[in-house]
Amino acid sequence: MSDTRSDSNVDLVTRTNQLEVPRLLTITIVISGMIAIVALIISAVAISKPASSDITVQGSTTNIQQTQPAVAASTYDASRYQSSYKKRIYTIAVGFGSGGFEYYDASGFKVGFFHDVIDAVCLEANMDCRTVTEPYTNCVISERGQPQRGGIGLMSGWYDACTGWLATRQRKQFSAFSKPFLKPPEAYFYALSGFNTLDITGKKVGLVSGWFTNEACLAGLDQVTGRDVPHGNVFHAQTPAELLAMIQNRTVDVGFTTASVMTDRISGTNVQQYPTDPIFCKNVGEQGMMTRKDNDFNSKWNEGFEKLVSSGRFKRLCDEAQTKHGGRGKINCVDA
Ligand SMILES: *[C@@H]1O[C@H](CO)[C@@H](O)[C@H](O)[C@H]1NC(C)=O
């Protein structure tokens, strides 16, 4: 009895030791790896920096003398490590003040459904994504009497992509679109009470510059008289907030934009939404990411997005958004 017990004890100890060995090995490997990385970084610094370098610590500059000679120079080729170490950073423009898609939380941080989607897709796609807050007109710009064109930020490559733009015939001329994640938004007219939706003849019309709710969309609304708005009667706001102000101070007779950014904004004002049923523009697709045509962003993004969709996480993200951001306007995801 006692023999058996002691045997099993020995056995236990041996087994524990057997378990201990691989763990120790792993730790040793990890530590050696870390030391190797630190050594690489030190040698890289030694090559790229002169023997003495200025290091700024919270505003004060300290001059640190490096006594170490640049011995590693002949054995270490920094450029060989650049591509494998440095992951491409993708920068993404996101606007501000657009319903539940992009807004500032109580602490002043940018939040909203667009940010949720970017975080989730970039994680799936293994992309290093950074958002930058930009005026919409740097992505797409409209000017009186001219077709929409790519904004300076998008076309000059200040960032890789603009977020949540709808694929339209005009925009497809200068940009490429990812797989869509939002259905086409519902549009309405916004005006002070007594406005006749079905006749905008001679009315001054306010639009948000760069948005798909533009002159081309208006011109396709068969049910509306005076839909070919003369250029002189078109006024562009830079943001939905500015459009509302233009309606309120009578710079324009009527504004034309999407419910997702306006319905919530007009509550408690004397501005009303017309007609009862939403308006859908012709020749528009759904909303996704928009890039220059020569950018590889969309192919990587689409891979991540597909993974998000097939795992069911995209649908969950959309369902959660209704409670998280939905109070600020409808978030209408594509069926997935
Ligand atoms: C009306 O509001 C717009 C947008 O805020 C502003 O640019 C414009 O100067 C205002 N016009 C008048 C007459 O107050």
From TrEMBL:
Transmembrane segments: 24-47
Gene3D superfamilies on file: Periplasmic binding protein-like II (3.40.190.10)
Keywords per UniProt: Membrane, Signal, Transmembrane, Transmembrane helix
Gene expressing this chain: LOC106152969
Domain Solute-binding protein family 3/N-terminal: 100-318
SUPFAM superfamilies tied to this protein: Periplasmic binding protein-like II (SSF53850)
A Pfam match: SBP_bac_3
InterPro entries xrefs: Solute-binding_3/MltF_N
Protein name: Uncharacterized protein LOC106152969
